[in-house]
Amino acid sequence: MTFEELGLSEKVLKAVADAGFSEPTEIQKGAIPPALAAQDVLGLAQTGSGKTAAFALPMLTRLERGRARARMPRTLILEPTRELAAQVLDAFEELGKYHKINIALLIGGVSFDRQSRIIDRGADVVIATPGRLMDHVERGKLLLNAVEVLVIDEADRMLDMGFIPDIEKIVKMLPFTRQTLFFSATMPAEIKRLTEQFLHLPVTVEAQPPSSTAETIDQKLVLAPSDDKAKREKLREVLRAHEQGLTNAIIFANRKKNVEILRKSLSKHGFNAGSLHGDMDQYARLDTLTAFRDGKITYLVASDVAARGLDIPAVSHVFNYDAPVSPEDYVHRIGRTGRAGREGVAVTLVTPDDFRVMKAIEKLIGKEIPWEGHAPTEEEIEEASRRKRPARGGAKGRGARGSGGRTSRSRKGRTGKPKAQAADVPREESSVQEKPKRAPRTSRGKGAQQARASAGKTRETQGKKDTGQRKEDARAAKPANKASGRQDSFHEGNMPAFLARPVNKD
Predict the structure, then answer these.
(1) Which domains does the chain have, with CATH numbers?
(2) Among residues 15, 48, 14, which one has the least CA distance to residue 336?
């Protein structure tokens, strides 16, 4: 079957020929005819199967008739991430270059006022992430009661990112008579519920079995140590082993923190690496993707924000530094390579803690993934799978159990032992604890001045006595002064200043 047989307009066919597309993919063959007939479509296909053109081409054909009014778009495309939305915009600009249509891209990280001005002129196509779209609607900048076609792309990814409540709100604002094109790579129960809610007698197009991987991807497992430093060294060893035939590669990590650590480590050891994760602002992310597409970056270290939908045809390798959290994420990650019939390589570093999730991945994709290099025995895999990983804050954490089985949340010290009683405290520690009870410096200074003045008067009185009596008084006063000094010190440290005045015995 050719594109001419699908019923597309002349302008669309001319743009398709200019783009170099020779024949439609499976999802395009199945989705374009019912979409042109204004039927709802449920498309089940993995990324890289041509889903964007499957809804863009019939939409462009339909948009040749009629015009959009201000703040009232004719078609709406919902994407889970900014990168996917920007990618769909590129596809519409390429395939719709012979159409005079206005396209609005509504994503975060871009000027809100600039987007509003485009909408005010009348947008035939709105491509948006759910959050930014809701911002425009709630501010009264956008009306959705004239939408003719709704596209929900990467629906399972929307579910993962928590966008389903927003999507349900958006759909309630749309006309009941709209056409809906719904695409998803997997079909969990929640997504199935949405299809029953949003679609009316849909035509189901299944390009390949859900949760399957492309046959053109050579998948491998590599045994790796659990220690972070040794694991990074193992990654570098694997990258060097696959340098031959590598065009560029995406390296996936589960956490944003690990993405930056890996990027710095690879750069330090001479690898041309960049990073992509959710904490980067929109312009930095787009610049990184552009550099990766243009070959200025060879290794792109990324979190799962890059796992779905990014159309970078030249990716030859995918490396999973961290085993994915869910089996479905594995399918989407390695789907970045082996796209559109090309060959690709996917290598996953597996620590003993990852054996269980890898078994789940093999069960999902329906085949066993071979090991590259040393392979663990079945006994080792079974033993590691039975062994539970310690919970956060385990024996070494703050909640460690002390004697008596109580945790540190009770009235105990950090070590779990009861606090020492006052009688058990050594004398030196007791004196240290009493220091904060001293009177302020101003009071102590005033008391000291009064003590010195009183001592001067005493010496003046004693000078009037005879010499023998003065010596005797001096000898008697010497130990008394010592005692008085100790007493003054005691009073100065423990009593108010007005009680520290020496008593005049005269």
Answers:
(1) 3-206 (3.40.50.300), 217-386 (3.40.50.300), 438-499 (no CATH)
(2) 48
